[in-house]
What we know:
This protein is mostly helical. Helix content is about 50%, strand content about 10%. It has helices spanning about 1-10, 40-65, and strands at about 15-20, 25-30. A two-stranded antiparallel ribbon has the order 1-2. A hairpin with a 6-residue loop joins strand 1 and strand 2 (about 25-30).
Amino acid sequence: LLTQLAAMNYELLLGKFQLNPSSGAITLSAEVHLDDGMGFQTFNSVIGSLIQTADARHPALLQAAQGLGL
């Protein structure tokens, strides 16, 4: 699972998957710097991309967490 998370993180341009060892929860986080006056439309697009990435990668991460597909 950790190997798969690291590989996905390497491929991502935006966002980073993290594993909480206590709960087993996998989260996707990103830093979005707004210093340059990013508008709402751009911010909304970034959030949409994060959600699509999380949805697309969830099945593979779930399989890895269950010990499958390693």
